[in-house]
């Protein structure tokens, strides 16, 4: 429609998109969702998890607490993983500019390589917009190192 019209007659795109979306949305029904492969797979997985936790504990609150604890542990372990090496960090350094952490050797190697190419280093953490990481921005992250060490002792 836009290609056919003159530039002065450009339609209200927001309205057209909303209209189209509403039309598509009204075609979807709950029965479509009940037949959706991914939705069914997700529901089966939830049932499986519920069965597993109900066997382990008779009390639902215990099961929920266990899941919460697992999520917390998983999230803290994720923070131990270097975005460059995808391995647990041994000598984590924090970027003072954006706050992300990396394995010291890995980030310094990237900085050195890019410096030789006369290029800037983007923060390797996905979604970060910091585009000029320098060695001088990096400081050892002692707190994270202690957390990793204590996790590994357990």
Automatic annotation (TrEMBL):
Xref: CDD domains: SPL-RING_NSE2
Domain SP-RING-type: 67-153
GO biological process: double-strand break repair via homologous recombination; protein sumoylation; protein ubiquitination
Pathway(s) where this gene product acts: Protein modification; protein sumoylation
One GO cellular component, as annotated: nucleus
SUPFAM superfamilies: RING/U-box
Record keywords, A-Z: Ligase, Metal-binding, Nucleus, Transferase, Ubl conjugation pathway, Zinc, Zinc-finger
PROSITE patterns, per the entry: ZF_SP_RING
Name of the protein: E3 SUMO-protein ligase NSE2
PANTHER family found in the cross-reference section: E3 SUMO-PROTEIN LIGASE NSE2
Family membership noted in the UniProt record: Belongs to the NSE2 family.
InterPro entries: Nse2(Mms21), Ubox_domain, Znf_MIZ, Znf_RING/FYVE/PHD
Subcellular location: Nucleus
Coarse class of the protein's main subcellular location: nucleus
Pfam families: zf-Nse
Entries under SMART domains matching the protein: Ubox
GO molecular function, one term: zinc ion binding
